Give the backbone structure.
Amino acid sequence: MTLLTVTGSIRANQDLTVDQDTTLTGNATVNGTLNVSSGALTTSTAQKEAIVQAGPGSGTLDVSSGTFTTSTAQKQAIIDGADIQGTAILSSGESSTNKYLRIDGDGSCSWQQTGKILQVISSTYTGSTTTTSTSGTFPSALTVSITIASGSRVWIMGTIGGEGADTTYTTFGYMRRGSTYICLGGASSNRRRVSNFQRQESSQASNTMAMNFVDNPGAGTHTYSIGVGVQSGGTVRINSSRSDNNASFNGRAASTITVMEIGQ
């Protein structure tokens, strides 16, 4: 049974409690409290969207100067029935444009910061050189500088190839920021801390190594480099084979360093 049918407008300057069915085809303005917590509020999808988004609409329920009281189930029904998605989702209070809405797993959602690649700088070394250094040789072509903003990080990726010139020697891969070695293994007695390593057990063995690290150096200009070293008494060639004979079975490699600024 419908207790009250309104085809025009209704205005309530005080609290309005609806205990029975009410049909409204016009506008309702409530300056007090509209309480339908024990009943049900039936609206169209467009009207639900207007309620959720606080936007105007035909047949609008206006409680902007008062209070709209409903049960939790009814509030959820309004939200579920509003079919809010895509560009209709509002992000009031969030000024950043680089965020996404995450399902937190506890029945709630939250706006989260996304990362983005702001710039990419890369350099490739195609020459060939030999080193006997234990602490590493760093070709100038495998050194790059990048200027980053506050809050950004740097993702460094490097690949350096070559071959040891001696048997039973270990080749070391290194990564540096300026003169500071980064991406190092943990300290362990006499063991050398390096970014990567390979043990050579034959007279000719490839020593190509990859290094990958995300650095958080702070705002400013930072210089990164990759290089290789070798166990004391050994020799390693960068980008070429041990013999480097002029034959089709010997290769010449390209070594590369790439750095990327990852923003907030």
